[in-house]
Amino acid sequence: MCSPGPHIFLLVVPIFRAFKEKDLEALLEVLMPLTERVWRHCMVLFTWGYWLNDCPVENYIVREGKGIQELLEKCGNRYHVLNPRHYDDSDQVKELFKKITVMVKQNGESFTCKTKKKISQKLPWRRIQKQEEWRKREQKLIERVMKALAKEAEEPTGPFSTIAQSMDDFHISDLGEDGSSECGSFYTVRESTNS
């Protein structure tokens, strides 16, 4: 949605994992809101290229079947393979950037140019709607805080001290009644009179 928008979408497909038709369906569903125009800006990037064992990637594409072949067809048969075992070989990255440059020149524009006007017309209304919602939430929060403060002021203020009751019906006294040891304060235990 930001200007100038994406020039290319790299669809990353790891070679070590089979690309099934369900993967293609999921990808089509994700890209559906972007319209059919998005496919002019897509390229498949095969990763984990060393799984090919020096065989051409075309063999992999034929062996994988309909799912990957349909994806490549939608992308205009644009693809590239990266082999992490040859990370010091900068030629594979340079070749990828050359392919990207050719795609950008062929498309002549970024993906969002034609839809920018429609999107920008919707944004002000959404922004105003969100601002009103945040104001309402803020007002409710202020009202809650004010009610809590009003209730708190009604209660007597003074030193806070209570006696805690243990599980076996003994009371643990306040720290102020007992002395201190070198490890800190210690408690005296009184038997409960509530029994």
Automatic annotation (TrEMBL):
The keyword Translocase does not apply. Keywords: GTP-binding, Nucleotide-binding. InterPro entries: G_AIG1, GIMA/IAN/Toc, P-loop_NTPase. Residues 1-123 form the AIG1-type G domain. Residues 176-195 are annotated as: Disordered. One of its GO terms (molecular function) is GTP binding. Belongs to the TRAFAC class TrmE-Era-EngA-EngB-Septin-like GTPase superfamily. AIG1/Toc34/Toc159-like paraseptin GTPase family. IAN subfamily. This is AIG1-type G domain-containing protein.
